[in-house]
Specification:
two-stranded parallel sheet, 2 domains, 2 strands, globular, about 5% strand, mainly alpha, about 140 residues
Length: about 140
């Protein structure tokens, strides 16, 4: 992938959600463009991160919530990078949300920012707690 990027060609890395594609693909490529290696292509280095499975993961969460009737805790995963993303998963049935790739981009404070961002969403939708909102859509 690095050779294609250095040559100014496009490269696409596709892998299952949670496969570590960000760490395995994008970060080493970006690190290889450090000043010691020379400049990136003339028009700059562009990275596009796409989460094609986000909608699918959300739908599977809804399906499992319906199939279990809420009897077991479910974990919302895949493409969670904001309070709105977490809230959507909670309302769909997640008792817990998992952060992974977004931590690379946002840093270790992401969890606290999401937690703070959930408060106005709970208030807007009339919930006193996250537990009340789980599976409420």
């Amino acid at each position: 992938m690095l050779a294609k990027a250095e040559a100014g060609r496009h490269a696409l890395l596709v892998a299952d959600t949670g496969a570590g594609k960000t760490l395995a693909g994008f970060l080493p490529t970006l690190c290889d463009f450090a000043p010691s290696r020379g400049a990136p292509p003339a028009d700059g280095l562009h990275t596009l991160y796409v989460s094609p499975l986000k909608a699918l993961a959300l739908q599977r969460l809804r399906d499992f919530r319906k199939a279990t009737g809420g009897a077991i805790p479910l974990v919302g995963v895949g493409g969670i990078a904001s309070a709105a993303d977490a809230w959507e998963r909670i309302r769909a049935g997640a008792s817990l949300v998992q952060l992974y790739s977004a931590l690379v981009y946002e840093g270790p404070g992401l969890g606290a920012r999401i937690a703070r961002g959930l408060i106005p969403l709970m208030q807007r939708d009339g919930f006193a707690s996250i537990a009340e909102a789980v599976g409420s859509e």
